[in-house]
């Protein structure tokens, strides 16, 4: 099989299978198996494609084909997306018990969109994938549509991320205006002002999907979706793709001289603040969600620094780590019916493999040596230190926070259950008290990834990654590794002794959603309502008044017709009678003459009316207007 | 060939006026004729080649009123053929949708076949008088559809408002046509000849006045803000198939007039007035979307989205007049986007109106708050409406994205300030998702209880329109190959 065909199949197979599953709900029973089969094939195809790195395009719009190309960066990303998708779908086969066809169909479309995002070669193809990903996220977050608030959360997610997506449309316009064409790799060729606009558009779009500040709040709402959705959306799909896009366009950001700095700082600040938000959470899914935004902050920081190899290593390692943790959280939610950390006490003891695997992933998240995120994060932080000490300090503080929230999670699941624990059971849904192999096996596989994928950032693999991306080899500095590893270890150990602080100011996700609601949503809705009233009472009423004015004129004309013209006609008739009587007194020769005269008048009238059809347009138009006036009057009379 | 396409429905309409024809025969005859007409259009499409500049494909010309230089001149090019195809498709979908209608089906079929003929006539006309006659007859036909088959106590009033408003608009249009006629060197109403002669080139005042008359006439029909207030009541009271035709086909006569008449015949005036046109387009986009967002009546909401969607077209054709800024690629892209949007909006909005009609048919109301949890009793309706909503809000994989991406890329690449219109796609997204949420999600309540899901004819009529939107969205070359050469020609004509 040629690699090009494999590339097309990689996207088309899940997309078409997914669409069919959505539209043919009769396949309910086999949906899970079909989806796993497609995902397995997808993983194989991803490996083939990553090895051969083909490109493919078909004509699409003028000057911009539907353009798929695999390079070093996407060759790393594609197997990650495919593998996580497969493992999440295995978990979903057990976890989703209703609406399976629709669920697995949407998940496959979602995955196809993520894969297409990874290989998109130009802005049209990228936007195509990007927005389909957003729309399926709406449908997946609001999957349990009987609860209206879940659908509302899907709406929030889609509207927020689409607000960012507008940046991609603007970027496409700027690319065209700047003469660079729509190719992603050629954007740096755009003329100066246009290039800045394109970079700004891409930056906004990526920050929206990656849930960076100020967009982060949608990720909190996304927790209303089923657990497998969170597991995929946070790790290897939508959120990750936001970071991925910035890694891809890092050269463009750098070429502007400001967008790279902006990205670096937004990433670092998000890592810090959302880390604090994660520390403040008491709900396991909310904690993990905030940590996703924070960890993606390191990827965005890497993109801003031009440290793509460190960034992509962090992205891949985080995908494995976070998918493991979300699947575990989902399994506990299904079994115990609670997302509350205090309700999870003893969960790790009850289901050992699940608990151990999740703990390994959590330790990786904490940045404990030698697990993956320790090394990948320091690859980014080392680059930050070369750029600015402040950037490094903010990043290091953010990394310390990740140790704190990860420790909080580990502590919660290993703490012995007490009498209080069971009171939280079943508060979110009815628990099954069961967790099986479909839960623990994917988590275990992903936990292994979370443990070892740090090698991507360490020699000798780091050199290969850098070469694949066309970069100078770069490793994390030894002192940085020691510093962050020590901090993480100390904080995790401290958490076993002391209760760690929970910054209450960060519990509500920094009030971001509230601010968006007060500053944007409500004013917009008020404006809409006001304009709707204006439309009825202003514009429409003006049109109606004009029509009424015309009707009044018509009525005036009608009454003139009665009292004036008709009376005049009556008078004329009377006068005619008088004349007639006078005529009767005339002799026969007189009558003869008047017949002749009548004939002559008829002939003249005929000639006059013929003149109306003389091809002179202003006559036609005058007649048309006269006719229209008559029709208007007629209709007004009928319409009353 | 084109004459057969135009007049086949009319001939069938005349036959259906015979009272001896049974209702059942009438319904199926309508479907058969609409399908046959689509078949003929498919033949034309298959044999179509973009004609050289100044010519039309499948051209026919007969003497008609030689005294004024008006002839029966018809033909198609890449700007009209997609609309001809879209028109026959929308009418066929309406015929299928109406297969169970009980209210005077024979006369209804005759009336819609008449409407189909005159609508096709507008899009193939190559003579201004012919165009005008068809244009006005379409208004008359739609008046009777709303007045005769509309629902609600105000149907007669809404129909009258529609008639008066659009008819007055058409008179402004006629005034403009006469302006073109009298200022031509050899007075003629022939569109092709006028586009070659450029009667008002070098006369900014007269050219501006004639363009203003034409623009007002077309703006009423399109409709753009502030001439749009006839649209919501007409849609609210029209029957489902009437709304589908009104939004799908009749609105396009306005925007088609821009690309067929105003731009090629008055290029200099068009360039001079490009910015006002762009501003009206942007206002229509934002205003239409915002007012739609505030609606409580689903059908009115969909009606206002037409103002928004047609606003994109106006924006794009306005941008095409900015020949001194941006690149020619960008302007051409905007024109292609405008034309694609006409077809796309026809398909998607017609489907949405057919689906919204089901709400009234089952539960007697379009009120958003009167439903909830409709997804439980009506999964098919939910699926199709959700697809239609996402298609309408410009989701990729549907035709709306192909149209809007090109419009935005072209417009922003030419005049960056037009990026403000991007907010339109965000507002439409919010509006449709909120509506989906309110009607279909949550506990099943109100009008949703005991709701009967789509029957086969409803499913297939709306479903095939959306399937075509999907086809264009995934394989846009099927339509862009036809549109692009004509758009390139138009971009050149505007630059003269």
UniProtKB/TrEMBL annotation, chain A:
Q: Name one GO biological process term.
A: ATP synthesis coupled electron transport
> Which species is this record about?
Agrococcus sediminis
Q: Which ranges does the record mark as transmembrane? A: 6-24, 31-52, 72-91, 103-121, 127-145, 166-185, 197-219, 231-250, 262-280, 287-307, 319-339, 351-369, 389-414, 435-458, 478-496, 620-639
Boundaries of every NADH:quinone oxidoreductase/Mrp antiporter transmembrane domain copy: 120-400
Q: Which UniProt keywords apply?
A: Membrane, Transmembrane, Transmembrane helix
Classification via InterPro entries: ND/Mrp_TM, NU5C-like
Q: Which GO terms describe its molecular function?
A: NADH dehydrogenase (ubiquinone) activity; NADH dehydrogenase activity
Domain of life of the organism encoding this protein? Bacteria
- Where does the record place it? Endomembrane system; Membrane
Predominant cellular place of this UniProt entry's protein = membrane
Task: Tell me how this protein sits in the membrane.
Answer: Multi-pass membrane protein
Q: Name one Pfam family in it.
A: Proton_antipo_M
- Official protein name in the record: NADH-quinone oxidoreductase subunit L
The keyword Secreted belongs to this UniProt entry's keyword annotation: no
> What Gene Ontology cellular-component terms does the record carry?
endomembrane system; membrane
Q: Does the keyword Ribonucleoprotein apply?
A: no
From TrEMBL, chain B:
Q: Which GO terms label this protein's molecular function in UniProt?
A: NADH dehydrogenase (ubiquinone) activity; NADH dehydrogenase activity; ubiquinone binding
Query: Which keywords does this Swiss-Prot/TrEMBL entry list?
Result: Membrane, Oxidoreductase, Transmembrane, Transmembrane helix
Is Membrane one of the keywords UniProt gives this record?
Answer: yes
Recorded source organism is: Agrococcus sediminis
Please tell me whether the keyword NAD is annotated for this protein: no
User: Superkingdom, according to UniProt?
Assistant: Bacteria
Q: Where is the NADH:quinone oxidoreductase/Mrp antiporter transmembrane domain?
A: 125-423
Q: What is its EC number?
A: 1.6.5.-
Which GO biological process entries does UniProt record here?
ATP synthesis coupled electron transport; electron transport coupled proton transport
State the similarity comment: Belongs to the complex I subunit 4 family.
Query: What sections of the protein cross the membrane?
Result: 79-99, 106-123, 129-150, 162-184, 204-220, 240-261, 273-294, 301-322, 342-360, 381-402, 408-436
Q: Which InterPro entries match?
A: NADH_Q_OxRdtase_chainM/4, NADH_UbQ_OxRdtase, ND/Mrp_TM
**One Pfam family this chain carries?**
Proton_antipo_M
How does the entry describe its membrane topology?
Answer: Multi-pass membrane protein
GO CC terms on record?
A: endomembrane system; membrane
Q: Where in the cell is it found?
A: Endomembrane system; Membrane
Q: What is this protein called?
A: NADH-quinone oxidoreductase subunit M
């Amino acid at each position: 099989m040629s690699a090009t065909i494999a590339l097309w199949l990689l996207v088309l197979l899940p997309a078409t299978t997914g669409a069919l599953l959505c539209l043919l709900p009769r396949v309910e029973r086999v949906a899970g198996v079909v989806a796993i089969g497609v995902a397995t094939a997808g993983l194989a195809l991803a490996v083939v494609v990553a090895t051969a790195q083909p490109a493919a395009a078909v004509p699409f719009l003028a000057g911009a084909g539907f353009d798929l190309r695999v390079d070093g960066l996407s060759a790393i990303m594609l197997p990650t997306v495919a593998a996580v998708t497969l493992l999440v779908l295995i978990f979903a086969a057990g976890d989703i018990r209703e609406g399976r066809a629709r669920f697995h169909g949407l998940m496959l479309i979602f995955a196809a969109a993520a894969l297409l995002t990874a290989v998109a070669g130009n802005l049209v193809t990228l936007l195509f994938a990007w927005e389909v990903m957003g729309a399926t996220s709406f449908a997946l977050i609001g999957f349990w549509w009987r609860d209206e608030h879940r659908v509302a959360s899907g709406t929030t997610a889609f509207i927020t991320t689409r607000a960012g997506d507008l940046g991609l449309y603007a970027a496409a316009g700027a690319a065209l205006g700047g003469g660079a064409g729509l190719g992603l790799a050629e954007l740096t060729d755009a003329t100066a002002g246009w290039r800045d606009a394109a970079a700004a558009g891409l930056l906004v779009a990526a920050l929206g999907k990656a849930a960076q500040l100020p967009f982060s709040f949608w990720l909190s709402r996304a927790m209303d979706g089923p657990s497998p959705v969170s597991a995929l959306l946070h790790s290897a799909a939508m959120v990750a793709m936001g970071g991925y896009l910035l890694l891809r366009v890092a050269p463009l950001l750098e070429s502007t001289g400001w967008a790279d700095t902006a990205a670096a700082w937004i990433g670092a600040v998000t890592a810090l603040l959302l880390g604090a938000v994660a520390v403040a959470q008491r709900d396991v899914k909310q904690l993990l969600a905030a940590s996703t935004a924070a960890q993606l902050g390191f990827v965005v920081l890497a993109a801003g620094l031009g440290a793509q190899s460190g960034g992509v290593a962090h992205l891949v390692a985080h995908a494995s780590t976070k998918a493991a943790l979300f699947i575990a959280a989902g399994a506990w939610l299904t079994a115990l019916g609670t997302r509350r950390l205090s309700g999870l006490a003893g969960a790790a003891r009850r289901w050992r493999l699940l608990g151990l695997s999740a703990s390994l992933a959590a330790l990786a998240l904490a940045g404990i040596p030698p697990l993956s995120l320790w090394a990948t994060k320091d690859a980014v932080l080392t680059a930050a230190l070369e750029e600015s000490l402040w950037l490094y300090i903010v990043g290091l503080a953010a990394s310390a926070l990740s140790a704190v929230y990860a420790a909080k999670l580990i502590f919660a699941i290993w703490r012995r259950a007490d009498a209080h624990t069971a009171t939280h059971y079943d508060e979110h849904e009815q628990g099954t008290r069961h967790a099986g192999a479909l839960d623990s096996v994917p988590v275990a596989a992903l936990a292994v990834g979370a443990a070892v994928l740090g090698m991507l950032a360490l020699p000798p693999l780091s050199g290969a990654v850098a070469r694949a991306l066309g970069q100078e080899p770069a490793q994390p500095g030894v002192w940085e590794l020691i510093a962050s590893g020590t901090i993480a270890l100390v904080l995790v150990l401290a958490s076993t002794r002391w209760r760690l602080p929970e910054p209450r100011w960060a519990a509500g996700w920094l009030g971001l959603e509230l601010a968006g609601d007060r500053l944007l949503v409500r004013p917009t809705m008020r404006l809409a309502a006001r304009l709707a009233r204006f439309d009825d009472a202003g514009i429409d009423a003006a049109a109606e008044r004009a029509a009424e004015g015309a009707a009044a004129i018509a009525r005036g004309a009608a009454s003139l017709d009665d009292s004036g013209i008709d009376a005049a006609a009556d008078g004329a008739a009377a006068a005619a009678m008088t004349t007639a009587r006078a005529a009767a007194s005339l002799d026969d020769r007189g009558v003869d003459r008047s017949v002749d005269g009548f004939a002559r008048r008829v002939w003249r009238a005929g000639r006059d009316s013929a003149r109306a059809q003389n091809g002179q347009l202003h006559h036609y138009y005058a007649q048309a207007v006269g006719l229209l006036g008559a029709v208007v009057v007629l209709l007004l009379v009928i319409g009353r | 060939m084109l004459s057969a396409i135009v007049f086949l429905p009319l001939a069938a309409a005349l036959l259906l006026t015979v009272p001896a024809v049974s209702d059942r025969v009438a319904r199926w005859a309508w479907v058969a004729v609409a399908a046959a007409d689509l078949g003929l259009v498919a033949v034309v499409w298959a044999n179509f080649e973009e004609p050289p500049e100044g010519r039309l494909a499948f051209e026919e010309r007969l003497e008609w009123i030689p005294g004024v230089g008006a002839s029966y001149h018809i033909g198609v090019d890449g700007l009209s053929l997609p609309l001809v195809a879209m028109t026959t498709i929308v009418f066929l979908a309406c015929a299928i949708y109406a297969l169970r209608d009980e209210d005077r089906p024979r006369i209804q079929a005759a009336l819609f076949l008449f409407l189909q003929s005159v609508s096709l006539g507008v899009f193939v006309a190559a003579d201004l008088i012919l165009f005008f006659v068809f244009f006005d007859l379409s208004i008359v036909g739609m008046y009777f559809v709303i007045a005769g088959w509309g629902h609600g106590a105000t149907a007669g009033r809404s129909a009258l408002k529609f008639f008066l408003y659009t008819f007055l608009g058409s008179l402004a249009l006629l005034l403009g046509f006469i302006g073109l006629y009298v200022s031509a060197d050899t007075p003629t109403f022939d569109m092709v000849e006028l586009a070659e002669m450029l009667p008002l080139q070098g006369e900014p005042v007269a050219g501006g006045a004639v363009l203003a008359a034409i623009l007002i006439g077309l703006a009423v029909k399109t409709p753009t803000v502030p001439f749009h207030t006839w649209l919501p009541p007409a849609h609210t009271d029209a029957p489902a198939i009437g709304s589908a035709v009104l939004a799908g086909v009749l609105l396009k006569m306005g925007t088609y007039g821009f690309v067929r008449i105003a731009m090629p015949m008055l290029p200099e005036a068009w360039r001079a007035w490009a910015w006002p046109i762009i501003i009206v387009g942007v206002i229509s986009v934002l205003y239409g979307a915002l007012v739609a967002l505030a609606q409580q009546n689903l059908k009115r909401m969909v009606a206002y989205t037409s103002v928004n969607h047609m606003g994109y077209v106006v924006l794009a054709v306005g941008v095409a007049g900015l020949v001194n800024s941006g690149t020619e690629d960008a302007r051409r892209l905007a024109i292609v986007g405008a034309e694609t949007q006409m077809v796309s909006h026809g398909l998607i909005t017609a489907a949405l109106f057919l689906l919204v009609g089901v709400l009234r048919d089952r539960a007697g109301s379009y009120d958003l708050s009167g439903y909830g949890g409709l997804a439980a009793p009506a999964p098919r309706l939910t699926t199709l409406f959700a697809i239609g909503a996402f298609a309408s809000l410009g989701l990729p994989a549907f035709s709306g994205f192909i149209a809007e991406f090109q419009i935005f890329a072209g417009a922003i690449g030419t005049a960056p300030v037009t990026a403000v219109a991007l907010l339109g796609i965000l507002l439409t997204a919010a509006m449709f998702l909120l509506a989906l949420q309110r009607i279909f999600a949550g506990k099943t309540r109100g009008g949703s209880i005991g709701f009967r899901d789509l029957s086969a004819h409803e499913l297939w009529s709306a479903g095939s329109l959306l399937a075509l939107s999907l086809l264009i969205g995934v394989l846009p070359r099927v339509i862009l190959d036809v549109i692009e050469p004509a758009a390139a020609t138009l971009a050149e004509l505007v630059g003269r």
